[in-house]
Amino acid sequence: MTKVVLTLLASAGLCASLPHHAHAELDVVALKGTIERSVATDYPKLDALYKDLHAHPEIAFQEEKTAAKLAAEMRALGFEVTEHVGKTGLVAIYRNGEGPVVMVRTELDALPMEEKTGLPYASRDKTTWQGRETFVAHSCGHDIHMASWVGTAKTLIGLKEQWHGTLMFIAQPAEEIVAGARAMLADGLFTRFPKPSFGFALHDAPFAYGTVRYRVGIGSSSADGLYIKFRGRGGHGAVPQATIDPLMMAARFVVDVQSVISREKDPTEFGVVSIGSIHGGTAGNIIPDDVVLFGTIRAFKPEVRAKMLAGIERTAKAVAAMSNAPEPEINLAEGTKAVINDPNVVGTAEKVLKAAFGDKFAPSPPGTPSEDYSEFINAGVPSMFFNIGVYEPERVAAAREGNGPPLPTNHSPLFAPVPEPTIKTGVEAMTLAVLSVFDQQARGQ
Q1: What is the pTM of this model?
Q2: Cβ-contact 8, 163 below 8 angstroms
Q3: In angstroms, how far is CA 333 from the centroid of its own chain?
């Protein structure tokens, strides 16, 4: 047997139940079985927590009730909990002797959108967002993450004879606007509390439940915000020659900016500009004075990002110049950088997770959505960020083969993970990942 497995299993009393000639994979599977039994016992409470969180979501920096629920769960497990870190975030610490500090992060916030899943626990809650009333929904799956986070904490406490060190479980606000991680760091996350030796986070995604996907190096894209106001001269729609039409400029920009992607950026490198919101005008027969566009800019590599930002600004100014309009107001706001997974952390967890999940644990290409977990990595926490699936394997296969409808993705109003297998996989994978780095440190590697 490998030293990894001996260390993990000895205090659990599992070695005696395994044949002396057992291979490492069988030993890790036995440990996974212990975790599975623990999660099965705890699952009814996790399911109730998940459905409560799902039915009552809160958006960025409004997650007061959500954070309070998680704080109560963690205090009941024996964690020292500090609330209101980074406005609505919380930090839960559990000390178990000398050893590394291992951070596990979840997100708290939901999205300002209407859920259309028809689930019995679907959200019908509303709030005010950017000055207007909106529905709120956990259509990104952060409620799955929170339930898995609590389940992982409970499981690790039950296995505390097997590891030594400090658990640092953080619940981060405002991930959807890539502002919560930065807010927690600014509020002293790594000065008021121990700085982690290692960090882990997971995210659900539209592939088969029971499976785990990971990557070394680039794990997600950078994200920047786009705000452009085209200024014109308003007037009657029947007399366009007396106006400078900002709607025409906005329409031209939406099309022309894509040439930055198709003709200036290396086609083998990832980069995307998407315009998600256009505001202008009040009536069909009035040309407005100005039009505002909001969008998002994504890339994996800094040099690609820089080329795109320069091209976007140049295109916007050129569009205005073509219309003999004033120079537009342009704000390309930096959001967050790409998540970069640490090869050593991934390599350590990979051995255990591969033995536990077999071919259901596999590498995947980087994800194009962005994640402000990168702020913690850039603050000096070597990390692994991985994904878990949410849908029935048969449904996934049918969609892939064209025999079934497309799968709703994260941020779709129809996004509806299958709770039990998804949460159980999240707990099992995260628990094993955390144990892998505790074990590595215990052996001085």
Answers
A1: 0.86
A2: no
A3: 20
